[in-house]
Each structure stands twice: as structure tokens, then as C-alpha cells.
Design goal:
Layout: H1 15-36, H2 38-44, E1 50-56, E2 62-68, E3 71-76, E4 84-88, H3 90-98, H4 103-109, E5 112-116, H5 118-138
Parallel strand pairs: 1-4
Antiparallel strand pairs: 1-2, 2-3, 4-5
Helix pairs in contact: 1-2, 1-3, 2-5
Length: 141
């Protein structure tokens, strides 16, 4: 586990739970960046609201991201009629939100399945990479 520090037995989380928490933490950092960084907010203004639905293979963990009109919002659960759905392993999903993977290679190798509007999936992956680049440059979020 990463950055857990000292925890009681009641607070202990399995690796699966830590991974889910990490995915949401990475998403929340992008959400915060959208509130605090004008450059990223401007990039989000290029889109009308679109919905990313994330589904983790062999897990009941689902989450969604709405992005566009200058905002980035995320939460656990499912959204009706998402623009696109990404289905993959926990490891791949974490790589997506770290901005540290090649989406086309993962898609072509079968490690990443996309249902729905592929063009917005590609745009979303680019937004995530941009968010990580801005975050590195500004030393924040």
C-alpha cells in the first residue's frame, strides 16, 4: 500500500480497495485542477458536457467523469447514457489517470475496451495527459 502510514485494523484496506481509492484520488486531483487552473479550464471549454463511464474488469467498482463547459466532475457509480465507456483492468485505469500510457496501443492489444463515441474517448485521454503536464509544471494539485 502507498502512503498508508499507521492505521488501525478497522481502517485496513485491501489492495483492491486501495486501488479504487487511488483511481478516485487521481480523478479528484484533476477535478481540483479544473477549478484552479485557467489553462486547463479553457481546454475543458472546447467541449459540451460529455460523460466518461469507467468500469473495472473483475470488480463491481464503477465511476464516472463529466467533462466540458469548463468543468471536470467525477464520482463513484454509474451515469445513464454515457458518451463513452472505458472497460479495463485496475492497473490500466490507474495508468489512464496518471497520463502515463499509450491509449491506442492498449486499445489495439485488447487491454482497453471502449464502447460509445471513440473520438471523445481520445479527447478525454488527451485532457488527462494535459492535466498531468500542467500539474507537473505548476508543482501543484
Amino acid at each position: 500500500m502507498e502512503h498508508c502510514g499507521v492505521i488501525s485494523i478497522n481502517e485496513f484496506l485491501c489492495e483492491n480497495c486501495c486501488t479504487k481509492r487511488k483511481i478516485m484520488k487521481l480523478n479528484k486531483s484533476i477535478e481540483k485542477l479544473a477549478l484552479e487552473n485557467e489553462e486547463f479550464k479553457e481546454e475543458l471549454d472546447y467541449f459540451k458536457i460529455k460523460t466518461f463511464q469507467g468500469k473495472i474488469l473483475n470488480s463491481d467498482f464503477n465511476f464516472w467523469v463529466e467533462f466540458g463547459n469548463g468543468v471536470y466532475l467525477c464520482d463513484k457509480g454509474e451515469k445513464d447514457n454515457p458518451t463513452f465507456t472505458v472497460i479495463c483492468t485496475q492497473k490500466t485505469m490507474i495508468q489512464i489517470f496518471k497520463g502515463s500510457f499509450e491509449p491506442f496501443a492498449e486499445f489495439l492489444s485488447g487491454n482497453l475496451k471502449i464502447e460509445g463515441d471513440l473520438q471523445y474517448a481520445v479527447a478525454f485521454f488527451d485532457l488527462v495527459k494535459l492535466a498531468k503536464e500542467i500539474s507537473k509544471e505548476t508543482g501543484g494539485v
